[in-house]
Design brief:
Elements: H1 3-25, H2 28-58
Helix pairs in contact: 1-2
Length: about 60
């Protein structure tokens, strides 16, 4: 498993928590940052998946 997949998943979870906290507190900036972190985490996870697939294809 590529480290990008692990970091991406962690970033996605962090974003989810941050977004929820922003909603609860009524902080639109924190909510937006959470959404951005979630999106970045999903992208990073996808990149890691592509790296894994390429590595497996070469074996």
């Amino acid at each position: 498993m590529d480290k990008d997949r692990i970091e991406g998943a962690a970033r996605n979870v962090k974003g989810t928590i941050k977004e929820a906290a922003g909603k609860v507190m009524g902080d639109t900036k924190m909510e937006a940052e959470g959404k951005a972190d979630k999106a970045a985490g999903k992208v990073q996870n996808t990149v890691g998946g592509a790296k894994d697939a390429a590595r497996d294809a070469l074996k």
